[in-house]
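Sequence, structure tokens reproduced for absentees:
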Amino acid sequence: MEYSYLTDPGKVRDHNEDSVTVIKNSSGEILLAVADGMGGHRGGEIASSIAISHIGKRFAEISSLGNKEDAINWIKDVVSEANVQIYKYTNENPESAGMGTTLVLAVLTNQFLLFGNIGDSSGYVFKNERIHKITTDHTLVNLLVKSGELTEEEAKDHPRKNVLMRALGATTKVEMDIFDVERDVDGIMLCSDGLTNMLSVEQIEKVINDETLDIEEKVVKLIRKCNARGGTDNISVAYLEKESGE
């Protein structure tokens, strides 16, 4: 399998509050993770960096995630640890009050594929040249859509579409949604909303399905397309392609 990841500040923001990584451990298991930070005084930048650095370091230290139940428990534990670190930083640095971060991750082993998310960064799988969203956004607008108070169309341009109902570092305890997904997929993509707010599903699929591009070029092209459309936010992508038979 091949993977690539990249983050870009976009065309409007003066700094990048996203963090992204892909790591393979000694057993060949793979972790992909994207975090989109928020908060003044570069607080978002710090929050996303703490989350990705801690989770990536812990993953690199273990030889294997074990079975699926062990992996789910590991994800919950390291996310909780990262949450405590961000919360502690805020308490020790009052100027960073209100900082936090979204988090979406995926772990792929020979036995299973798991996704987890907090906030509105998204996790997708590719199969048969189509993209399928796995994660569910923890936003006020998504809550209103689920309750029937807003339609999907109304939600797209709602003035409060970025209001999060859940974020890492906002409280002492955090709940991450975990998704158990069939391994029989062609690819995995994680991204911050800087990508999905700029590009449609069809536009993303067109890039991913372009056989003239290698995997790094696909990630670069996705980000360039966002910037060509205004690049109103930081943009992060982590993308993995499985080879046939894997």
